[in-house]
């Protein structure tokens, strides 16, 4: 029996984003996932987050929910500072890979990510922003922010490492015009690993 896959599209997503679709499912044989995500409206845009707690099962699931709540309630700060504070707050836990992406209403994207939590941007060429080495809650380097000016129609793909990391560029670029819900379904149904928790956030900026 395959793990359950969920894709959600009917939430009240941030107005800075024209489309958002998220999907996730647990490791084969598990009933809960150690991955997490947050999509948060802000006064001048939106904050997207994806996280992958080390390990699987109930303990990883519990920590992922704690990290989601922390991000949902955190004060608005630069994404690098949020990651540093998150690291301090969860120091001594099993830790997680985390990717934070802020999309401003004017299309300026700022990303900071640690571990195997990946951001891909299609507009239409592929821009790949892998995480820095480290684990939030265990050990992190000096956290670096990277910025990218989005073009109208840009598609953002945040994935944990339960989704295949090495997808062909031609395949990814062919998804640019597809609805976000279709892309999240493709990621989860065709490119997710059954031996890991898998989660994605797919969002479009199109003012």
Structure in words:
- By secondary structure, the protein is an alpha+beta fold.
- It is 21% helix and 34% strand.
- It has a six-stranded antiparallel beta sheet. A five-stranded antiparallel beta sheet has the order 3-4-5-6-9.
C-alpha Rg (nearest Å):
16 Å
The portion of residues forming beta strands comes to 25-35%
- Average pLDDT level: 92
How are the strands ordered across the major sheet? Answer: 1-2-11-10-7-8
Note the total helix count: 4
In short:
This protein has 207 residues and is of the alpha+beta class. Helix content is 21%, strand content 34%.
Keywords:
207 residues; alpha+beta; six-stranded antiparallel β-sheet; five-stranded antiparallel β-sheet; 4 helices; 11 strands; 34% strand; globular; disordered N terminus
Give me the secondary-structure topology.
Layout: E1 6-8, E2 19-25, E3 35-42, E4 45-53, H1 57-73, H2 79-89, E5 96-104, E6 108-114, E7 118-122, E8 126-129, E9 146-149, E10 154-159, H3 169-173, H4 180-190, E11 198-205
Antiparallel strand pairs: 1-2, 2-11, 3-4, 4-5, 5-6, 6-9, 7-8, 7-10, 10-11
């Amino acid at each position: 029996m395959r793990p359950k896959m969920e894709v959600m599209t009917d939430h009240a997503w941030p107005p800075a984003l024209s489309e958002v679709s998220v999907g996730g499912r647990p490791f084969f044989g598990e009933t809960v996932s150690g991955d997490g995500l947050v999509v948060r409206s802000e006064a001048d845009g939106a904050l997207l987050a994806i996280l992958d707690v080390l390990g699987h099962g109930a303990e990883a699931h519990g920590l992922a929910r704690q990290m989601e709540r922390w991000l949902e309630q955190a004060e608005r700060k630069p994404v690098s500072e949020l990651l540093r504070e998150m690291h301090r707050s969860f120091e001594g836990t099993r830790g997680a890979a985390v990717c934070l992406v802020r999309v401003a209403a004017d299309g300026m994207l700022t990303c900071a990510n640690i571990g195997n939590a990946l951001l891909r941007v299609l507009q239409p060429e592929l821009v790949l922003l892998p995480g820095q080495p480290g684990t939030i809650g265990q050990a992190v380097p000096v956290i670096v922010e990277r910025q990218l000016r989005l073009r109208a129609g840009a598609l953002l793909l945040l994935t944990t490492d339960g989704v295949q990391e090495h997808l062909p560029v031609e395949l990814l670029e062919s998804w640019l015009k597809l609805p976000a819900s279709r892309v999240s379904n493709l990621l989860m149904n065709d490119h997710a690993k059954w031996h890991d928790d898998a989660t994605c956030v797919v969002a479009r900026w199109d003012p």
